[in-house]
Design goal:
alpha+beta, Jelly Rolls, 6-stranded antiparallel β-sheet, 3-stranded antiparallel β-sheet, 9 strands, 29% helix
Length: 295
C-alpha cells in the first residue's frame, strides 16, 4: 500500500474518493468467500428458485440483502478489519487512532428489485452534525467488492467533490432533472474482486442496477472515523456484543483489531487483574495475555 499511499491520498483529498484494486488479494478474500454461503444464497441458488421462502426478503427491497456486523461468518468479520483496510483508513484519515463505526455485508441479485438510486450523500445517517472542511475531521466509507463487479453487476457510481463545491448540503438527493451534469460526470467503481471504493461522507454517490442475467453482487461496507470524532456513528458495538456471532469474532481478533471497536489497548490503565479476569470470563477461549502483560 505504501507505493499507492501518495496518489491515493491526493485523489481522496481532491476528489473525495479513491478507487483501489489489488489492496486485497485473492488470498486475502479466500477465507471470507468460503463462508459467504453462511449469509447469502449463491447466484445459482437464488435464480434457480432454491428455497424461495428464504429468498423472499431480497424481493422488492433494495436493502433486503443487507446484514450488519457481527456476521455469522467469523472470516468475513475478520475481513472487515483486515490490516490493509485499517492501514488505508489510517492513511486517509491522517491518524493512527481510528475506530470502525459501521460494518455491513450486502448481497444483490439481478431482478430482485430496482437498485437504481439518485445521487446522495451519506452524512445524514452517519453523523449528527455536518461534514467539516478540515481534513482531520473526515470520515471514511469503503465498499469492498468480494467478486468482480462489471458495469452490468451494479457498481457504485461516484462524483468528484471538485464538481460539487458550492452545492448545498440539502436537498439530500440532487435529482437528475435538476443536476444532470453531475450524473453525466459519474465515475464507476467497477473492477475485479478486491476492488475498494473509499469515499468521504460528503461525496455524492449512488447504487446502479444489476442487469446481467442470473447476476449477483456481494460487497462489504466498512466505515471508519478518527477515534475522537464521537459525532460520527451508526452502530453501537455494546449492543451488538449480545449477538451470538460477536464472541467467536472477539476470540479470533487481535488486540489491535479489537481497539477499532473501543477495547482499550494493552497497557491502558483500564486493565487490572480484575478487568482482565473479567475479560477472560466473558470471552472463553480468548488469549488475554496481551492485556495482562501490557505492551
Amino acid at each position: 500500500m505504501d507505493a499507492e499511499a501518495g496518489p491515493t491520498q491526493a485523489q481522496w483529498d481532491e476528489h473525495g474518493f479513491a478507487i483501489l484494486s489489488g489492496l486485497l488479494t485473492s488470498e486475502d478474500l479466500a477465507s471470507g468467500l468460503s463462508e459467504l454461503g453462511l449469509l447469502f444464497p449463491s447466484a445459482h441458488e437464488f435464480h434457480g428458485g432454491v428455497d424461495q421462502a428464504q429468498h423472499a426478503r431480497y424481493l422488492g427491497d433494495e436493502y433486503g440483502g443487507l446484514v450488519t456486523f457481527p456476521f455469522e461468518s467469523v472470516e468475513l468479520c475478520l475481513l472487515a478489519v483486515h490490516p490493509n483496510l485499517v492501514d488505508l483508513a489510517r492513511t486517509l484519515l491522517r491518524t493512527e487512532d481510528v475506530r470502525i463505526y459501521s460494518a455491513e455485508a450486502w448481497a444483490k441479485f439481478t431482478g430482485a428489485c430496482d437498485y437504481e438510486q439518485e445521487l446522495h450523500r451519506d452524512f445524514l445517517n452517519h453523523t449528527v452534525v455536518v461534514p467539516s472542511d478540515d481534513p482531520v475531521f473526515r470520515n471514511l466509507e469503503m465498499f469492498v467488492f468480494l467478486h468482480e463487479v462489471t458495469e452490468d453487476l451494479g457498481p457504485t457510481h461516484v462524483v468528484s467533490t471538485t464538481l460539487t463545491t458550492g452545492l448545498p448540503l440539502l436537498p439530500h438527493c440532487p435529482t437528475r432533472d435538476a443536476h444532470g451534469d453531475l450524473y453525466e460526470a459519474e465515475a464507476t467503481a467497477a473492477g475485479p474482486a478486491g476492488t475498494i471504493l473509499a469515499y468521504r461522507g460528503e461525496t455524492l454517490h449512488r447504487a446502479t442496477n444489476l442487469t446481467a442475467p442470473g447476476g449477483a453482487r456481494y460487497t462489504l461496507h466498512c466505515s471508519f472515523r478518527p477515534a475522537g470524532d464521537e459525532w460520527v456513528g451508526r452502530q453501537g458495538w455494546g449492543d451488538r456484543s449480545f449477538d451470538p456471532s460477536w464472541n467467536p469474532f472477539v476470540v479470533r481478533a487481535s488486540p489491535t483489531q479489537l481497539e477499532l471497536f473501543g477495547f482499550p489497548p494493552p497497557g491502558h490503565h483500564y486493565w487490572t487483574s480484575q478487568t482482565v479476569d473479567g475479560l477472560a470470563l466473558r470471552y472463553p477461549g480468548l488469549d488475554v495475555t496481551p492485556w495482562r502483560e501490557g505492551p
